[in-house]
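Structural prep section.
Before we set up the soaks we want a predicted structure of the protein with fe (ii) ion in place, mainly to decide which crystallisation condition to try first. Input record follows.
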Amino acid sequence: MTIDYSEKIPNNVDLASNRTLQRALEQWQPEFLHWWDDMGPEGTSGTDVYLRTAVSVEPKGWAHFDYVKMPDYRWGIFLTPAEAGRKINFGAHKGEPAWQEVPGEYRSNLRRLIVTQGDTEPASVEQQRHLGLTCPSLYDLRNLFQVNVEEGRHLWAMVYLLQAYFGRDGREEAEALLQRRSGDADNPRILGAFNERTPDWLSFFMFTFFTDRDGKYQLCSLAESGFDPLARTCRFMLTEEAHHMFVGESGIGRIVQRTCEAMVQHRTDDPGEIRALGLIDLPTIQRYLNFHFSVTMDLFGADVSSNAATFYSTGLKGRFEETKIDDDHLLAGAMYPVLEIRDGRLVTAEAPALNALNEKLRDDYIRDAAAGVERWNRVIEKQGVTLRLKVPHKAFNRKIGPLAAAPIDPDGNVVSPAAWAASVDRWLPSAADRAFVASLMGRVAEPGKFANWIAPPARGINNQPVDFAYVRFN
Ligand SMILES: [Fe+2]
Ligand SMILES: [Fe+2]
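Run finished without errors. Recording the tokens verbatim:
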């Protein structure tokens, strides 16, 4: 079987002229499609979905909309155009020309960064594969599938780097990316949050709001990399990530709006009464928020990390908006505040800024996420409801790093194990919460119809009406 790459894999990396890479991708593509059949959205191979496909990196050309069956989606390889004379902007190699090939001494660290990022992409598709069966509307179903195919494309983006620049090891890693499985006891995905289940649409919207936003911050840091192909790949991925976060933010916004409208109409803030109306009460939304926020906190890694220092010093992974920061870009002698548990209390300690880069990225992320939560609060405020949503303290419910050593409540107080056990059902979704949310998940698959628990969006996708047939079942 021969594959016409200019046809089947849209790309701007001149694939047709690179025989070795072409052969590697030729072998990997059927394995990817096999994985998609196995682990991609359940029961959808014949379904036509109104999808956006990247066909070029031009600002106007890349977003091409049409109906497509997902297995026929063109998973392309796109890098933002090279910046002439680009330099390395931080670390020991600051001021040197950006690398176009992998520097031998950094090979294994770079590969590790690419594999870790790459592993999250198929993981989220696996986590979300059953959600189509309980979609609240065709509009939402289409958005889910858009996110899924783009996470597939992000996997292609990382596999391209592995196969183009890492030889045999890269090919082996590309295969392993299709073999690990989210939540599998024997061969799990690399990072914890990507082994959690995404069992319902409230979880899905929280995941795309919080966890895809972690993706944004990781990609922004890698987009600063001295390894130019990685930087350019991540820049293009960020254009897609923005839509994923939009899906989460608008999804929760619409749930909140629907709930608040009913609270006003029925003059109640009693969760039981809200639930009796078939709606999700705000305290339950807060508990889901707490869960997804805290799980995502752990994704940034240990607060003090020598790996983070090495990745930075060697020019592999920068800070968020590195070139906009006004300092020496070496962090010589600089300090950064980190949290510790001391004598049963959270205290702030100073760590070398180089070692605290995970913590700094986490703090950058928190500001962004908290601003999004405030936009939900404006929806609540507009309805005249007084309750507010809030991101928990960053030390809440941590599972890795020194803050995992003791239970910490959403306000940042260290509490006893007994106090934690007594209150955890007020802070995190309980089995009963999850069962209730699950009970609301039906399937609404008629154009223009929406599940009772979520408001319709203000507008459709690509200027189409809200009642457009975004998905057609054959
Ligand atoms: Fe992604
Ligand atoms: Fe994403």
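Observations: The radius of gyration is 23 Å.
Flagged for discussion at group meeting.
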